[in-house]
Amino acid sequence: MSQPPQRKPCSTAAAGKVDDWRCFKELGLLDEAVTQKKDREALTEKISALQTELVDYQYNMGLLLIENKKWSSKYDQLRQELAETEEILKRQQSGHLIALFDAEQRERCLRIALSVERKCVADVCFVSISSV
Description:
By secondary structure, this protein is mainly alpha-helical. The protein has helices at residues 17-27, 32-131. InterPro entries: CRWN (IPR040418).
């Protein structure tokens, strides 16, 4: 931004209002065209600064949108991987339950077989003892 031109201080020895008006006129404070030109320059600088700020905001917004898209994609990917992992876990749990059920069935069958075998051994022993 350009700075306003340096103003010369009015002489302190000005004797009256006429001298004050003349001093203002020398500084350009009473010239309407100069005042309008300064206003236009100030507005132009303000507009330029606002446009620069707008471009910066748009650039940052673009970066945020790109980052948002990247994180959304990563989130979707992780969500899909989580769903697949949960499905695998359910299948493994089902497999372990089936294996546990089969092991319990075999244990029951073996206990029954052991019970029958002990009964047969006891019967054989009883028959051998009674025949002696």
